[in-house]
Amino acid sequence: MDPRSIESVEEHSEGRHEFLAWLDQNFGLGPPEDLDVLWAGRKQDDDRFRTWVSQFVELGWRLP
């Protein structure tokens, strides 16, 4: 297992298995496998969110 995988960095809630079953049944998806892609997508979404929200509030904080 990749040491950076989701499994190795997160403790899971009690409802994880039910959520994964729901995710598969409703969307044909499983947990993310490539964390680099996941984080790159988050960065892009964070940047788009900051641009959008800056219309309404002054941003004096940073998202992690």
Mean residue pLDDT: 79
- The portion of residues forming beta strands comes to under 5%
The H-and-E topology, N to C, reads as HHH
Coarse structural class: mainly alpha
Q: Distance N terminus to C terminus?
A: 26 Å
Number of strands: 0
Uncertain ranges:
none
Report helical residue fraction.
40-55%
Shape: elongated
How many helical elements?
A: 3
Radius of gyration: 16 Å
The major pleated sheet works out as:
none
Oligomer: single chain
Explain this structure:
The protein has three helices and no strands. The chain has helices spanning 6-9, 16-27, 35-53. It is elongated and about 40 Å long.
Describe this structure in a few short sentences.
This protein is mainly alpha-helical.
Chart the SSEs and their pairings:
Elements: H1 6-9, H2 16-27, H3 35-53
List keywords for this structure.
3 helices, mainly alpha, 0% strand
